[in-house]
Amino acid sequence: MKKLLGITTIILLALIVGGLFTFKAMDHTTEKETQNEDLDSVETTKSEKSEKSQVADETANTKPQEQEKAFEVPENPTGKDIESIMHKMTHQKVRAERKTGAVRITPDSIDQLIELINEVQPNNSQELLKMANHWKNGNYEHIVEEHNYFWSHEGGGIGKAYGRLSVSEESEFIQQNFLR
Known about the structure:
By secondary structure, this protein is mainly alpha-helical.
């Protein structure tokens, strides 16, 4: 009887220790995957800067004005034009069934956007400035709602945002839309 109790105790201890090692290994694997995703994001950002510089060098001789502007501003811009630009900017951050158009969110494009809002002074300029300033400060907490605000103002039918992109999905969107 003592022998059976001793063997059972040893088996239980072995199972507990084995379970702990398995749990720790799985936790470590998840941690490494997260670190790798962060490293991939950093590497993507570095390669984006490199590719952006290369693209800038290649286009410097052809269209220098395009280098200065983050997006095309129509002649005599209106509030609707600004909303359209901002709508396209949100596409970089949101998940939607369909997205039409894209304007890259960068510090320069946000500065240009704020300048444009201040210049045009549309009826909803306070709301637009609030959104743009959130983006300028890296706050994309309400980006889905902001996208859907523009989407509905443009008579949205297909393409309502239903979530935010992950860092890797956003990197892929940037790669596909801006770094060809």
